[in-house]
């Protein structure tokens, strides 16, 4: 099977990346997202912050069409101005970096296999996938961009968490997407790897790639992010400029505990 390659520039540049209006999403019989109104522009840098279980992962799965909103009067969802998508076409425009994906990429798959699998929305290159020299070159270029070309032939199971994270980011970049979505990116990373990850996100944001950061760690919020959306209990608690959202009173309401905040070199820290 050959991958379907769609260039991001073929879509209307003025359309928002994402627009949700009064969206409700169920997981089983439970309401996971409730009356969500959210607009994110293409190439915007946004953090979605909230405690575990607040609906952040459900929101990501709704964006990537793994979950769908309930059909309700007045409810709508569009991505780049369209309500209907070929799922493979959509995945060429959004780069996803998630811990779920990292867990799926364990085993004998090499770094190059994992990156190339992004052309097929898979977790490795399988025998039925058709790769040509140009696609292999693009996969190598993505590894090189993340400064991990030396991991091309190394099995993922032999990589450190930081190395595997860079490989997953390379996989997400292989299509030159409009936006990268990072789902709890610093989980399982040591201090050095966390610092490296934040430098990568900063570089990508500076290059013009949109960044949607989904996290419960405010220290993950890179200086390039100007807007923060606070989520709790499946709802949006607040949405606005970073400096207004990352205030002790707001975060105390979000996490349910008293907090203190410090800021250094553009980063916020919570304790």
Condensed summary:
The protein is α/β, with parallel strands linked by helices and 271 residues long. It has helices at residues 56-63, 87-91, 99-104, 111-117, 133-145, 161-173, 191-206, 242-245, 248-255; strands at 18-27, 30-40, 45-49, 76-79, 94-97, 179-183, 210-215, 227-232, 235-241, 261-264, 267-270. It has a domain at 11-93 and 214-271: P-loop containing nucleotide triphosphate hydrolases (Rossmann fold).
List keywords for this structure.
globular; 9 helices; three-stranded antiparallel β-sheet; 271 residues; six-stranded mixed β-sheet; alpha/beta; Rossmann fold; 30% helix
Structural commentary:
With 271 residues, the protein is an alpha/beta fold. The protein has a domain at 11-93 and 214-271: P-loop containing nucleotide triphosphate hydrolases (Rossmann fold). The protein has helices at 56-63, 87-91, 99-104, 111-117, 133-145, 161-173, 191-206, 242-245, 248-255; strands at 18-27, 30-40, 45-49, 76-79, 94-97, 179-183, 210-215, 227-232, 235-241, 261-264, 267-270. The protein has a six-stranded mixed beta sheet with strand order 5-6-7-3-8-9, with helices on both faces. Helix 5 crosses helix 6. The longest helix has 16 residues, at 191-206. The N and C termini lie far apart (50 Å).
How many helices? 9
- Percent strand equals 15-25%
**Can you say what the CATH homologous superfamily of the domain at 11-93 and 214-271 is?**
P-loop containing nucleotide triphosphate hydrolases
What is the architecture of the domain at 11-93 and 214-271 at the second tier of CATH?
3-Layer(aba) Sandwich
Q: Which structural class do the helices and strands define?
A: alpha/beta
In total, how many beta strands?
11
Global outline: globular
| The top level CATH class name of the domain at 11-93 and 214-271 | Alpha Beta
On the 0 to 100 scale, the average pLDDT is 90
Order of helices and strands: EEEHEHEHHHHEHEEEHHEE
CATH topology (level 3) name of the domain at 11-93 and 214-271? Rossmann fold
Describe the largest sheet. 6 strands, mixed
